[in-house]
Design brief:
The protein is α/β, with parallel strands linked by helices and 344 residues long. The protein contains nine helices and 18 strands.
C-alpha cells in the first residue's frame, strides 16, 4: 500500500514557535525542516509535506481573504494528498473551522485544524501531541481504504470535534476547545475511538466544490439588560449591514419592548437577515417556547437553533455571498448544510 500523504498548512499561531537559542525569543519554525523540531514524526510512515504562510498570521488577524487562501491551497492539492492538517492559532480557530466547513462543499477528505497553548519549542508543550494526533487522524482509513473522518474538524487535547460545532472554551487549559451541543467525533487515548454515527460522509461521487467568496457585511450583537435602544436602532439601520446575529437570553428570549420589535421588523423589511442564537454555551433557541420568542418570530427573526456564534457568523457570511434572496438565506440558516445545527 502507498504511504498516506498529508499536507501540513502552517498559517501561524503558538504551535509554530520555537526558541532562538541565541536571543531567547520565540520565532516561527521553518516547516520545511519540521522533522528536526519534532523527531517523533519519523516514527510515522507517512509522506508529509508542508506549506507555510509567509509571513505567518497571528490568529487574531484571521479574515475571509485568508480563508479563501486556505480553500485555494486545499482545492489545488486535493488530488495529491489524503488529508490536510492546518496549524492555526487558537483564538479564531473555531471561526476558521466553521468557515471552511461551508466553503469546502462536498469535502470527502479530512481537514483537521490544530494548534497549541504552549509553543512547540517549549519543554511542556502540548503542540507535539496535538500535531502528531492530528496527522494520525488525517491519515486514518477504514477497512475499505476510505477516510475515517472526511470533514472539517478541530483536534485538541485528545478530542476530535466537528469544526462548526467547536468553540474555544479556555485560555489556559490544554483542553482548550469544547463542543457543547454535539459529541466528539473521536477520542484519542491508548486507542482511537471513533463515534461512527456522528461522522458526516459526503456523496462519494460528488466533486469538491470550493467557494472563496464570503460577505462580511454581518454583525453579532449580544443583548444585555440596559442596552440602549439608540445603539440597536443605529446598527440595524446601517446600509452596509446585511446580516445580524442576535445573541439573546436562554432559549431565545429578548426584551418585549416596542423599540426592539420595531427595529427588527424594519431590518427584516429592509432585506436584512436577523438570526437568533442563545448566549448560553449549551442548548438551543426555541422561539415558540415563550411569548418573547414568538414576538421575534413575528418580527421576521429566524432561529439559529443550537449553532455557535462562530458558526452562525461564518454561515451567514457564506450564504450572503451566494447571491440568494433574503428569504432563501433565512430558510437555509435554519437548515443543516454541514452538520452545524440540530434540525428540529
Amino acid at each position: 500500500m502507498e504511504r498516506p500523504r498529508i499536507l501540513l498548512i502552517y498559517t501561524g499561531g503558538t504551535i509554530g514557535m520555537i526558541k532562538n537559542r541565541q536571543t531567547g525569543t520565540l520565532q516561527p519554525i521553518d516547516f520545511e525542516n519540521l522533522r528536526q523540531h519534532v523527531p517523533e514524526l519519523k516514527e510515522l510512515d507517512y509522506e508529509i509535506r508542508a506549506h507555510q504562510f509567509q509571513p505567518p498570521i497571528d490568529s487574531s488577524d484571521m479574515r475571509p481573504a485568508l480563508w479563501a487562501q486556505l480553500v485555494h491551497i486545499i482545492a489545488q492539492r486535493y488530488d495529491d494528498f489524503d488529508g490536510f492538517v492546518i496549524l492555526h492559532g487558537t483564538d479564531t480557530m473555531a471561526y476558521t473551522a466553521s468557515a471552511l466547513s461551508f466553503m469546502l462543499e462536498g469535502l470527502r477528505k479530512p481537514v483537521i485544524l490544530t494548534g497549541s497553548q504552549l509553543p512547540i519549542g517549549v519543554l511542556r508543550t502540548d503542540g507535539k501531541e496535538n500535531l502528531i494526533g492530528a496527522i494520525e487522524l488525517a491519515a486514518a482509513t477504514d477497512s475499505q481504504g476510505r477516510p475515517m473522518v472526511p470533514e472539517v474538524t478541530v483536534y485538541f487535547g485528545s478530542l476530535l470535534l466537528r469544526g462548526n460545532r467547536s468553540t474555544k472554551a479556555s485560555a489556559e487549559r490544554f483542553e482548550a476547545f469544547a463542543s457543547y451541543n454535539f459529541p466528539p467525533l473521536a477520542t484519542v487515548g491508548i486507542n482511537i475511538n471513533y463515534n461512527q454515527s456522528a461522522i458526516l460522509h459526503s456523496d462519494p461521487f460528488r466533486p469538491l466544490i470550493p467557494h472563496v467568496e464570503m460577505d462580511n457585511s454581518v454583525i453579532a450583537i449580544t443583548l444585555f439588560p440596559g442596552i440602549r435602544p439608540q445603539i440597536i436602532e443605529h446598527v440595524f439601520e446601517m446600509p452596509d449591514i446585511r446580516g445580524i446575529i442576535l445573541r439573546t437570553y436562554g432559549s431565545g428570549n429578548a426584551p418585549q419592548q416596542p423599540w426592539l420589535l420595531n427595529a427588527l421588523r424594519n431590518a427584516t423589511d429592509d432585506g436584512k437577515v436577523v438570526v437568533n442564537i442563545t448566549q448560553c454555551d449549551a442548548g438551543a433557541v426555541e422561539m415558540g417556547l415563550y411569548e418573547t420568542g414568538n414576538q421575534l418570530l413575528r418580527a421576521g427573526v429566524v432561529s439559529g437553533g443550537d449553532m455557535t456564534v462562530e458558526c452562525a457568523v461564518t454561515k451567514l457570511m457564506y450564504l450572503l455571498a451566494q447571491g440568494l434572496p433574503p428569504d432563501e438565506v433565512r430558510r437555509l440558516m435554519a437548515q443543516s448544510l454541514a452538520g452545524e445545527v440540530t434540525e428540529q
